[in-house]
Amino acid sequence: MTRIPLPLLKFPSLLLTASLFVLPFFVNSQISDDRSILLELKKQWDNPPDIDNWNDTSSPCDWPEINCTGKAVTVLLLSNKNIVNPIPSILCNLKNLTHIDLSYNYIPNTFPTVLYNCTSLQYLDLSQNYFVGEIPGDIDRLSTHLKFLNLGANNFSGDVPAAIGRMPELQTLQLYQNEFNGTFSENIANLSNLEVLTLAYNELFVPSPIPEKFGNLRNLKYLWMTSANLIGGIPESFANLENLEHLDLAMNFLTGSIPDSIFQFKNLEFLYLFHNNFSGGIPRLVNSTNLVEIDLAMNNLTGPIPEGFGNLLNLTFLSLFSNQLTGEIPVKIGQIPSLKYFKIWKNQLNGTLPPELGHNSPLLAFEASDNAFTGQLPQNLCSKGALLGVVVFNNFLSGEIPKSLGNCSSLTTVQLHNNSFSGAVPEGLWTATNLTSLLLSGNSFSGELPSRLAWNLTRLQIDGNKFLGEIPTGVSTWSNLIVFQASNNQFSGRIPEELTSLSQINSILLDGNQLSGEIPGNIIEWNFLNTLNLSRNRISGKIPASLGNLPSLNYLDLSQNHFLGQIPAQLGHLRLNALNLSSNQLSGKIPNEFDNLAYEYSFLNNSDLCADTLILDLPSCSRITSGNSEKLSTINLAAIIAAVAIFLVAILLAFLLVRDYRKKKLTRDLSAWKLTSFYKLDFTEESILSSLVDTNLIGSGGSGKVYRVPINHMGSAVAVKRIWNSKNLDQKLEKEFLAEVEILGTIRHANIVKLLCCISSENSKLLVYEYMENQSLDKWLHRRKTKEAGNNEYAYTTKANEMIDVYSFGVVLLELVTGQEPNCGGNDKSLAEWAWKHYADGNMIEDALDEEIKEPSNMEVMTRVFKLGLICTGTLPSTRPTMKEVVQVLRQYSPSQSNGESRKGNEKVAAPLLGILNHKRSRRVSSEDEESFGCGV
Ligand SMILES: *[C@@H]1O[C@H](CO)[C@@H](O)[C@H](O)[C@H]1NC(C)=O
Ligand SMILES: *[C@@H]1O[C@H](CO)[C@@H](O)[C@H](O)[C@H]1NC(C)=O
Ligand SMILES: *[C@@H]1O[C@H](CO)[C@@H](O)[C@H](O)[C@H]1NC(C)=O
Ligand SMILES: *[C@@H]1O[C@H](CO)[C@@H](O)[C@H](O)[C@H]1NC(C)=O
Ligand SMILES: *[C@@H]1O[C@H](CO)[C@@H](O)[C@H](O)[C@H]1NC(C)=O
Ligand SMILES: *[C@@H]1O[C@H](CO)[C@@H](O)[C@H](O)[C@H]1NC(C)=O
């Protein structure tokens, strides 16, 4: 291009004009060289569409991806350009290159040692790519001027080599989120200019202590080592790191006490030490007055909350939950002008709550449940109008709900259960616009129910109070309610038909009130009703046949009322786990479906019921009807009573004997039981086995019984499902059991009940689940909106586990649609690997689907579920969606969502996720991105 055409040499005069003409090219020779290098680079990358504006008629210095210094290309900005090929060696022919950003691409292969030839390089960002293999042991052959190196969010494995400590100019070293399965070199400590060091989310590291030598990094401002398999204590030498602004050692296995020195760092703004095993007290002297966020949750810290925290005038986030802190909350914490999140639940704190809390700062979340607080709720929690949640259950708080909470439209959850509150609920609280859950159980609240409720309210739990009056007919406007739990109050009057119009309702518990009248015969919209408990009232009349048509009902308790007449045959169509119609005045033949042992306690104390068989201890219908008239003769009656009495005594004796024998047998045969546990257990199999007694029974159904078994004196319990005890478990049940164990045993997710262990013997199987009585605050509060200041506080506490859960869930999805078992992908590949390979090789997804259930009508859904399974099982945890996103996609296919507006809404949310495979990986790096709030119920 700059060569002068030969003929011109022959004509000096022409040469002169020619050189005038070509002069610009001479002057710009470097730039045109650089341009041809860049165009060659583009070519070797297969012309990524995102840089198709690079051409040979414009100057590279005018391309948006390039910066020049003087006339040389110095800066290459190629983040997120869909580059899928390796880095060509020609890149370093750009001799003046100082800055390369290739982050967020799909660049494969091992570490690009071709970059060793870029001798002027100061800045290199290769984060968020597909690099694999080890970081080379000679990585220090990179430019000696290198100040910035980011290799985060790749798939590098092995060790972080010692050579990394031989790049003396480095100020930033980012190695977060890789697959390192060796150790990190303590030579990192030789990087005396280092200001930023990130090693977070490398949970495959061999467990290692933090090197004492790290105390040499005196310029360090930002240290991020979340989830890096750290053990041991924080080294003494950390006292030297007095320039730290951000210290994050969360989610490791660190022990010992928190060094006093940390709270002396003048510039420290963010301190995250949560989810470790730190013990001892929190340092008393707090001089780091710039602290903005402190998270010491989930450790074993003891002693009081330092008074000095009250002097931290920039503090927005203080989280100390799940420790063993004692004493009172320093009053001055209520005066901090910036405090937004205050989380101290699950400690042993006592005394009164700081009265000024919320008065001086835009408080968003106040969570103090499971302590021993007394006195009243602070009066002005919502005075800045920002409050999302008040969670103070399981304390000894008293007095009325502050009137001000009635004017707090930001509230989404109020959890005051199990305290000693009294008085009426402020009118405005029932209707607070954004409120989704109002939990007031176990207090002494009084007053009547409002006719209107917050439109968003899904959960209303007010059982065990002194509420009275009728259930208002306005109940029909409670249209989003899912749980209505109002047992053990003083409600009276009839059940209005309007209650049956709640189309979302799942549970209605109104037992232990004074309701009377009949159940409305016409049921408008109880399509999702699963649990209906009206026992211990004064309800009369017939049981409406329409109850038998409810598609979701599986728990029905109408015991201890005044129901009359026959049990409608339609009830037999329900698939019930528990049925209790005892202690009424029912008569006639029970529906055939109930004529089996699973219902042996369902019909007690109803004088005129009968059955075809004698299994249930009910009189035989044939005998009653053969007695010509309705009334039996007195003699016959006496004889029958005597016979029944003798029979009952005999049964009782037999029962006692058998029970005693069984109990003994259980314990004697302990060795015959095999325990498989999925979690660390704090109970023994013996304690479970000996507690499978009727007083602990909470439900029974076709395939077994469910018991609630207390496991300690603190009131913790587990739920034990006993799969029906027959001589030999039949094949189908055995299969069901194994499936449940397999799936629940591997899934770890907050919204899926935890299977703790299973205990099995030759002819009986027990599944032991977590029993959840009180919802922790996290379920309700921590899961929406708060992407404040680039930091979602909840996300980082659950993130790592969630990504593993999502993986497991993805495997389940793949199993469902392919019909294959998790480890049967052939050639000892896992199902997930097999599915990925199938997809990557360009095979039709349809070919991978289960032949047995594959039909043209559901092909599209199956294909999408297959893709969803793929996304969930991506090798890089960072590419996996959140459980919430997964649920959103799945909900789109559930029958209840298949019509109406909601579907449109959901498609919008779901589409980008399903598009990931075609377009862009979903990416998450730090705690910023995850949204996990908003689980409805
Ligand atoms: C070359 O790129 C520039 C902008 O980068 C554009 O204005 C010009 O039209 C392009 N030339 C050709 C031949 O594509
Ligand atoms: C590249 O140039 C743009 C525009 O002048 C500038 O904003 C940016 O900071 C430069 N980037 C680097 C890394 O020099
Ligand atoms: C580019 O680097 C070379 C040395 O590699 C140097 O001679 C030249 O001046 C630099 N060009 C610019 C424009 O800085
Ligand atoms: C670096 O450049 C030299 C010549 O300048 C070349 O011989 C060598 O192969 C290059 N190395 C790499 C790794 O590309
Ligand atoms: C580390 O991971 C790599 C890549 O997955 C593997 O090849 C290697 O065997 C692993 N090394 C150890 C010690 O586990
Ligand atoms: C640290 O704070 C305490 C009060 O909390 C004060 O007495 C002490 O002088 C402070 N020390 C330094 C070094 O500022």
UniProtKB/TrEMBL annotation:
Subcellular location: Cell membrane; Membrane
Record keywords, A-Z: ATP-binding, Glycoprotein, Kinase, Leucine-rich repeat, Membrane, Nucleotide-binding, Receptor, Repeat, Signal, Transferase, Transmembrane, Transmembrane helix
Record's bilayer topology term: Single-pass type I membrane protein
Positions bound to ATP: K721
Pfam families assigned to the protein according to its UniProt record, in alphabetical order: LRR_1, LRR_8, LRRNT_2, PK_Tyr_Ser-Thr, Pkinase
Signal peptide stretch: 1-29
GO cellular component, one term: plasma membrane
GO molecular function: ATP binding; protein kinase activity
Name of the protein described by the UniProt record: Protein kinase domain
Record organism: Dillenia turbinata
